[in-house]
Design brief:
By secondary structure, this protein is α/β, with parallel strands linked by helices. It has 9 helices and 12 strands. Strands 6, 7, 8, 9, 10, 11 and 12 form a 7-stranded mixed β-sheet that branches. Strands 2-1-3-4-5 form a 5-stranded parallel β-sheet, with helices on both faces. The longest helix has 15 residues.
Length: about 280
């Protein structure tokens, strides 16, 4: 009799799925290092450092397993990206992982997106493994990112103007991010120069001020100088007060232009110019 010969199906061997990630990081060189680190953990990551419609289109097109948003720089902008991902129906199911950031900044983001994962680069490998083994089943959709509290920004307090060159001397690692977005045409550098309009010098002790002040005052020219130090409540300053800073600066030929200003919750400063 004729008939059909039964042919057993060939076995199909499935490779473990590759986890694709999108990394939102506003510093391109650092993002490249993070992508390399993720590759060591067997993740394929694509880095983005620009927000806007193009970013959302790219994420919709690639459908990553998760979007990592680094909060060490521009945390408000990072939060807004997370809100946009949740509000868009196409990207809503994608897990969001916020990484690093100052505790007070992370808290504000967590209040808006409580269902996201919050991690650090130290613990991220374990947190990603946990996330992919137990992915979330529901997502909270925020109506909109909350409006930032009213009041002058750090940029406003320092008096940064468009098309100015600002020297940041011994600045804390995250301070430049506090100045974003900069006024149009404004630029930052790490050394004083003759074309600087403003210098912001960070000190931690009276001795540091005494030793560095003659050189700073000599190079100041017609520009202005902010001297900034940690508030006493931070536990990082050494016998510094506005009165002590003014006394030393006046002896060096400088005059203070305004009262001591609270620049951030952790930093105080006084603005000086040459007499």
């Amino acid at each position: 009799m004729g008939g059909c010969r039964h042919v057993p199906p060939r076995p199909v061997y499935l490779e473990p799925p590759i986890k694709r990630l999108a990394l939102i990081h506003w510093d391109a060189p650092e993002a490249a290092a993070r992508v390399a680190r993720l590759a060591e953990w067997d993740y394929t990551a694509t880095a983005y450092n620009r927000a806007g419609p193009a970013l959302l289109r790219a994420i919709r097109a690639t459908t990553p397993s998760a979007v990592l948003i680094d909060l060490s720089r521009l945390p408000v902008q990072g939060r807004d990206v997370g809100v946009e991902l949740r509000q868009n129906s196409a990207t809503r199911p994608i897990s969001i992982v916020f990484v690093d950031g100052l505790p007070e900044k992370v808290l504000l983001v967590r209040q808006t997106l409580p269902d996201a994962v919050y991690s650090t680069w130290t613990h991220l490998r374990d947190d990603l493994a946990t996330l992919f083994s137990r992915p979330p089943r529901a997502y909270r959709v925020p109506e909109a990112a909350p409006v930032a509290q009213a009041g002058p920004s750090v940029t406003d307090k320092l008096g940064l103007q468009p098309n100015t060159l600002v020297a940041l001397l011994n600045a804390p690692p995250d301070f430049a991010a506090e100045l974003e977005p900069l006024p149009a045409g404004a630029r930052l550098q790490r050394q004083m120069s003759s074309d600087c309009t403003l210098t912001v010098w960070f000190i931690r002790s009276r001795r540091e001020l005494q030793e560095g002040l003659p050189l700073r005052a000599d190079r100041l020219g017609a520009s202005r100088l902010w001297i900034v130090w940690p508030k006493k409540t931070s536990g990082q300053s050494d016998a510094l007060s506005p009165a002590a800073v003014r006394e030393l600066c006046r002896a060096a030929g400088l005059t203070d232009l305004k009262a001591a200003a609270s620049l951030t919750p952790a930093l105080t400063g006084v603005l000086f110019a040459r007499r």
